[in-house]
Amino acid sequence: MSAGPTPPDVVVRAVDVRKSFGRLEVLRGIDLQVPRGGVLCLLGPSGSGKSTFLRCVNHLEKIDSGSLEVAGEYIGYRRVGDHLQELPQRKIARQRTSVGMVFQQFNLFPHMKVLDNVVEAPIRVRRESRAEARAHGLELLERVGLADKAQAFPRQLSGGQQQRVAIARALAMRPQLMLFDEPTSALDPELVGDVLDVMKQLAADGMTMIVVTHEINFAREVADTVTFMDDGVVVESGPPAQVIDHPTNARTRSFLSKVL
Amino acid sequence: MNETPTRDDTSRSEQQARSSARPALTVRPLRHPWRWVCALVVLTVAAAMLSSLLRNPNVNWPVVRDYLFAPVTLDGVVVTLYLTALAMVIGIVGGTAVAIMRLSTNPVLSGLARAFIWFFRGTPVLVQIIFWGYLGALYPTLQLGIPFTDVVFLEGRTSDIITPFLAATLALGLNEVAYAAEIVRGGISSVERGQTEAALSLAMTPAATMRRVVLPQAMRVIIPPMGNEVITMLKTTALVSVIAGQDLMTNLQRIYSQNYQVIPLLVVAALWYLALTTLLSLPQAWLERRFGRGHLAASPSMWSRLLGLRARRTAKEA
Ligand SMILES: Nc1ncnc2c1ncn2[C@@H]1O[C@H](COP(=O)(O)OP(=O)(O)O)[C@@H](O)[C@H]1O
Ligand SMILES: [Mg+2]
Fold first, then answer.
1. Nearest 5°: phi and psi at A106?
2. What ipTM is given for this predicted complex?
3. 20 to 30 A from B315, CA-CA: which of A63, B60, B264, B282?
4. Ligand nearest to C-alpha A233
């Protein structure tokens, strides 16, 4: 927090983020930054705290200390003098409008049709008119190649299609930042490509993204920065050519040798 | 096995090729002859019991006939239905609120909900009914005002304010809140955590998340036991006859305490409760389908299962 004000072109800034579950310290001082339009791929072994960090970024988990800013706001908190005051749920909800999240298990709403999944939050939260939300929703479904499934229920879609709907649903809130937590890990191998293509397009369109993934080729191709986490700390971070192809840390090397 | 195919293998595959050219084989479902035998036995016994009841002079069927649609009976039926509906509305609305309180992270709210459920589930509903009916014995007058001050908005005699019908409604309604709360809580807990997280990540407030995402999915789990609650409630209303609640049972009791035709009037009561519970269980299947949207098809009805109709129909479609 002594680092001064966040420059406007930085979308995410984490400084010494710490988080424990009971006595287990899961995040042990995470520092990272994502510039506007940047794509950061977060790699690391299972249990290293990647999901927990991502969930802290939109305050699905509270952090214990440090600071986490998204677009210049402390997510979940308001700065009062020299401390951070936790905000009430309604205010946190308002802050979350700038952050979209895509989950490993898709988490589409099973009782709503595809288009209703997409327009629910724009109508309820952003107070868009139904017509406006539907037009935008159909446009997004078109973008992920599923305009013809607008009236289907999520159960009637394949995993890959569900995940692309989930991406469209998150984009419908017009976020500044997209978080992806292993978006292709629950998919059959032949369905992974379609989802990654949508994400590549999104990155090419200039979306700021943090992607937790085991898809090394995707990271190499799309990421501006690859950050390797292990045991709650950032072990190594840099451009993909450096971290993936010439890792300096032994733990990074051992991890990459397993997933490549 | 990496051996080269023998002549035997070749001839078998030729056979298969030939058989697949024949018309497709029909599929016959398993037959259940014992079901028919059992059904026959059950029907015979039932018919014997029914005929013995119908021919029993102690039932006094003419009295049953006279009172089955008598105005006093019909008045009671209306009150019984009205009481059931009111108590269930109180129960479901209150129960949902108590369930949400119970699941709240606010310790005051969850503690209050726990205490409420503990008390109202832990005492017999008959005691609660009598308690509300005789509230006047505990508090002869009731006041609405600000505690520990002299400010009073309303004041009156308890027996004027809490009529037997209101006492019955309060007793059954509040008791139902406790049971409904546990059913709703079970329903809410059955919805995956990921659903809540997805809704929150879309910037929905916790209240909107509950209303738009969690509760509609919880309905699927809530409706079947809640349907049972409605049926149970309809029958439980008979207990309010102890405080003269004006329901069907109260009215029929008043009659047999005068004419001593206890059995025929109890038969009238039984016939009406049976008819009403049958009627009330009809909407349940529709509701289950409505809230099962997006999930697997509902299970087949009792009749189609009993007669194996489903199996036969699908076989024909194939
Ligand atoms: N809600 C929770 N309660 C307790 N422990 C948790 C919770 N969530 C995660 N953990 C623990 O935190 C550690 C990091 O988990 P996670 O962030 O999911 O790792 P990753 O996503 O890198 O596999 C694991 O040891 C996990 O068991
Ligand atoms: Mg994870």
1. 65, -55
2. 0.94
3. B282
4. 1
Residue B275 has pLDDT above 60, yes or no: yes
- Residue B193 in contact with partner chain A when CB distance is under 8 A: no
Q: Which residue of B has its CA nearest to A91?
A: B205
Q: Could you give the CA distance from residue B79 to residue B251 in angstroms, rounded to a whole number?
A: 10
- Write the CATH number of the domain with boundaries B80-146+154-244: 1.10.3720.10
DSSP codes, A102-140: E-TT----TTS-HHHHHHHHHHHTS---HHHHHHHHHHH
A137-174 pLDDT, tens digit each: 999 999 999 999 999 999 999 999 999 999 999 999 99
* B152 three-class SS: strand
CB contact under 8 A, B293 and A111: yes
Q: Is the CB of A23 under 6 A from ligand 1?
A: no
Residue B129 · residue B94 · CB < 8 Å = no
Query: How open is the CA angle A194-B195-A38, to the nearest 5 degrees?
Result: 50
Nearest-angstrom CA–CA distance, A51 and A57: 10
Per DSSP, what are the bridge partners of residue A177?
A99, A208
| pLDDT 10s digits, B150-200 | 888 888 888 888 899 999 999 999 999 999 999 999 999 999 999 999 999
pLDDT of residue B129: 95
Q: Angle at Cα A233 formed by Cα A208 and Cα A37, nearest 5°?
A: 10
d(Cα B285, Cα B292) in Å, to the nearest integer? 10
From chain B, pick out residues whose CB is under 8 angstroms from the CB of A154.
Answer: 294
Q: A221, A216, A155: which is closest to A184 by C-alpha?
A: A216
DSSP letter string, chain A: -TT-SPPTTEEEEEEEEEEEETTEEEEEEEEEEEETT-EEEEE--TTSSHHHHHHHHTTSS--SEEEEEETTEETTEEEETTEEEEPPHHHHHHHHTTEEEE-TT----TTS-HHHHHHHHHHHTS---HHHHHHHHHHHHHHTT-GGGTTS-GGGS-HHHHHHHHHHHHHTT--SEEEEESTTTTS-HHHHHHHHHHHHHHHHTT-EEEEE-S-HHHHHHH-SEEEEEETTEEEEEE-HHHHTTS--SHHHHHHHHHH-
A153 contacts in chain B (CB < 8 Å) = 293-294
Domain ranges, ordered by start, for chain B: 80-146+154-244
Pick from B198, B205, B295: which is nearest to A90 by CB? Answer: B205
